[in-house]
Amino acid sequence: MLVVATGVSQAPNDKEQVIPMLETLQAQTAQLGPIEALVSDTGYCSEKNVEACEALGITPFIAVAREEHHPDWRQRHTEPEDLPENATRMQAMIHRLKTQAGRSVYRLRKQTVEPVFGIIKSVIGFRQFSLRGLRQVQGEWSLVCLAWNIKRMAVLRL
User: Where are the alpha helices (DSSP H) in the chain?
Assistant: First the structure.
């Protein structure tokens, strides 16, 4: 649960943020090791992002829509029908997310990514930026993430 890359944007949605973040992460492979998968919510979903991940050998798990919280038990414990041979990359990713293994990978997002934001808001108390301007906000967010990482590393050290 360490923050290894940060980004701040003024864009109204997150679709254009995947490729710059992939570039940032690719530059850190010597320290992080190879990136195997990208797990993200629906705000990042686009065919361009799926293709960008696969071009780098990264398996995308990008939600395409909100799913109901309590699906029928049979739906949760069955595998989807086989993928057609002529499926697009986007269809293949949607199929992957419906498999038991895909759901298992996506479920990790709830316990690795989301708690970081919740703890930054509730424990550290960071709920809004004090500075204005993209450059200043990027710096402020980097400091918040640094504070989180120091806090997390102190816990991991114990």
Answer: 18-26, 29-32, 47-55, 73-76, 89-98, 100-112, 114-122, 134-157
